[in-house]
Design goal:
By secondary structure, the chain is an alpha+beta fold. 24% of the residues lie in helices and 54% in strands. The chain has one helix spanning 2-31; strands at 33-38, 48-56, 59-66, 69-72, 74-79, 82-89, 92-101, 104-111, 114-122.
Length: 126
């Protein structure tokens, strides 16, 4: 009897883990691609650029493309439709908090000088 209970408990845990991984992959897959952004109150050279998200083996990674620079995103966390991440720009840590809805997003960029609004949309494939 204990052996059957143990096997059933193991199967239940395994199934639940599978659903968790599926949710993570689904969230990552919705983000995967190139997103154009606008931060009109930022310094001129940082007002427009792209956020690029990639999914490899279930792990989400990304970077920001500004002008001709590429800056890696660190500590990417996806919770529902909210994505948080950090990046280093000119030696300073910048924090992003973005709320995604359909093919657009809005949010904030936080740094030592304060907080700025950012918004964007998914770049269409041609």
């Amino acid at each position: 009897m204990k052996k059957i209970f143990f096997i059933n408990a193991f199967v239940l845990v395994f199934v639940l883990m599978g659903f968790t991984n599926t949710d993570k992959a689904s969230n990552a897959l919705n983000l995967v691609g190139t997103w154009t952004y606008s931060a009109p109150d930022a310094d001129y050279q940082y007002q427009e650029g792209e956020l690029i998200f990639k999914e490899t083996d279930g792990d989400l990674s990304g970077h920001v493309a500004i002008d001709q620079s590429v800056i890696d995103l660190n500590d990417i966390v996806v919770k529902g439709n909210t994505v948080t991440a950090n990046l280093y720009l000119e030696g300073e840590e910048i924090s992003l908090k973005l709320e995604f809805k359909d093919k657009s997003f809005s949010g904030t960029v936080s740094f030592s000088g304060g907080e700025l609004s950012i918004s964007g949309k998914k770049k269409s494939r041609k």
